[in-house]
């Protein structure tokens, strides 16, 4: 806990604690590997992302490895659509503070458990050795919305963090075997957060709200090496993207005593210079054709979540609203995947994949990020209708086990604290359902 008696330091600390918590959201769109997605409605959903940087079979390679565009002739367009569902809820235990009540969290991911997604991808051939591309999608973010009176409302109530990217890209063939590619990542970030505030002299809670939008910039580099006509390797690097949010803290519904304290310290409607860093990542992949029916795919990857730098939010003591900032101290994550494609008939191809992402939280999880390690299981099918059009369907289930929560407050709820929150998120899981459509001109 950091307590700042001076007005300026108090303002910085409280706002930093409250606003930075938005970066530690529940995984509304991803269940492992932090909140960076592999799922954007493409064929990769059915493969659990196996072969991510080496597959290069459609225009989505603009995102996964821009160097893969050299394998595409003509003009290619892909529309990816998806819908996820999760019935994840918080299970309160008998060790939580009784004053918090027993209200359940509800299906807090997305809108009552549902959340849409997808992307649009374009690859254009300037020449056989030079390609241009554009991707528009969201690969970073999450959305959560707990019930109004849930037991952990003083830790987090609602939170949204979305990073939507435009990626203009270029690729060129260096030799018959080696191709290189690059993308500029222009990411628009949107942040919104609401947290309950305990009122000492009222049965009704107050609320802290903040929101902002900003642009961040980064880059992606890709390499593809075709060792033989049957085997190719892909390697990609995605730089970090800094989103410099400047949200304004807005308190509402606070009682006269707390309102006076907030106003006196300049906290209400104060602006915070807030930076959230989308982590850098590396992915290496392989694609190997066994015969005219079977191909095998695999990945290894790394994401630098230790640099994300988030803290939890809260007014720990409404009698003396200074700050409580708790570093979540994320760990870097590792990814591995294996998959297969099997040609059932001339128009139909079956996809299968399994992947694992390592844990990025140590011990108990935060109610603002109730997920950790996870297993992905994907299945899908692609139908090539003719030379100019194809479509596919895919599903993926991500299982994250159980996440225990043990938040111990400095003060009880009745004296202005947030209370102890103890429980678990059981059988953490998300189901993705997707459809993709591919055109060649």
From TrEMBL:
Coiled coil: none
Family designation: Belongs to the OmpP1/FadL family.
UniProt cross-references to Pfam families, sorted A to Z: Toluene_X
Keywords carried by this UniProt record: Cell outer membrane, Membrane, Signal, Transmembrane, Transmembrane beta strand
Protein name: Outer membrane protein transport protein
GO MF term list: long-chain fatty acid transporting porin activity
Its membrane topology: Multi-pass membrane protein
InterPro entries: OMPP1/FadL/TodX
Any single GO CC term annotated in Swiss-Prot or TrEMBL for this entry: cell outer membrane
Subcellular location: Cell outer membrane
Species, as recorded: Candidatus Accumulibacter proximus
Signal sequence extent: 1-26
């Amino acid at each position: 806990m950091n307590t700042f008696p001076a007005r300026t330091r108090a303002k910085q600390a409280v706002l930093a604690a409250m606003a930075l918590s938005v970066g530690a959201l529940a995984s509304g769109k991803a269940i492992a590997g932090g909140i960076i997605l592999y799922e954007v409605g493409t064929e990769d959903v059915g493969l659990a992302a196996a072969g991510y940087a080496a597959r290069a079979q459609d225009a989505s390679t603009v995102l996964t490895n821009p160097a893969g565009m050299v394998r595409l002739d003509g003009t290619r367009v892909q529309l990816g659509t998806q819908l996820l569902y999760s019935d994840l809820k918080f299970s309160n235990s008998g060790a939580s503070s009784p004053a918090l009540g027993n209200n359940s969290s509800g299906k807090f991911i997305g809108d009552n458990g549902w959340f849409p997604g997808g992307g649009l991808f374009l690859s254009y051939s300037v020449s056989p050795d030079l390609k241009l591309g554009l991707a528009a999608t969201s690969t970073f973010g999450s959305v959560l919305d707990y019930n109004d009176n849930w037991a952990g409302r003083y830790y987090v109530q609602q939170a949204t963090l979305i990073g939507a990217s435009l990626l203009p890209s270029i690729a060129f063939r260096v030799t018959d075997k080696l191709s290189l590619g690059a993308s500029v990542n222009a990411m628009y970030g949107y942040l919104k957060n609401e947290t309950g505030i305990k009122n000492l002299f009222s049965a009704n809670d107050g609320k802290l709200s903040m929101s902002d939008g900003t642009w961040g910039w980064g880059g992606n580099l890709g390499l593809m090496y075709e060792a033989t006509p049957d085997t190719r390797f892909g390697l990609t690097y995605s730089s970090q993207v800094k989103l410099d949010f400047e949200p304004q803290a807005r308190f509402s519904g606070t009682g006269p005593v707390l309102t006076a304290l907030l106003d006196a310290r300049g906290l209400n409607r104060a602006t915070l210079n807030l930076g959230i860093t989308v982590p850098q990542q590396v992915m290496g992949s392989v694609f190997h054709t066994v015969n005219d029916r079977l191909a095998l795919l695999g990945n290894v990857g790394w994401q630098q979540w230790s640099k994300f730098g988030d803290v939890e939010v809260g007014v720990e003591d409404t009698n003396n609203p200074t700050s409580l900032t708790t570093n979540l101290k994320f760990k870097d994550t590792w990814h591995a995947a294996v998959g297969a494609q099997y040609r059932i008939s001339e128009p139909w191809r079956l996809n299968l994949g399994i992947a694992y992402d390592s844990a990025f939280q140590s011990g108990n999880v935060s109610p603002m990020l109730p997920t950790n390690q996870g297993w992905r299981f994907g299945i899908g099918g692609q139908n090539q209708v003719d030379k100019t059009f194809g479509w596919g369907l895919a599903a993926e289930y991500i299982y994250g086990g159980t996440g225990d929560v043990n938040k111990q407050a400095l003060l009880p709820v009745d004296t202005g604290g947030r209370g102890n929150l103890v429980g678990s998120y059981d059988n953490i899981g998300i189901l993705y359902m997707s459809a993709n459509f591919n055109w060649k001109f």
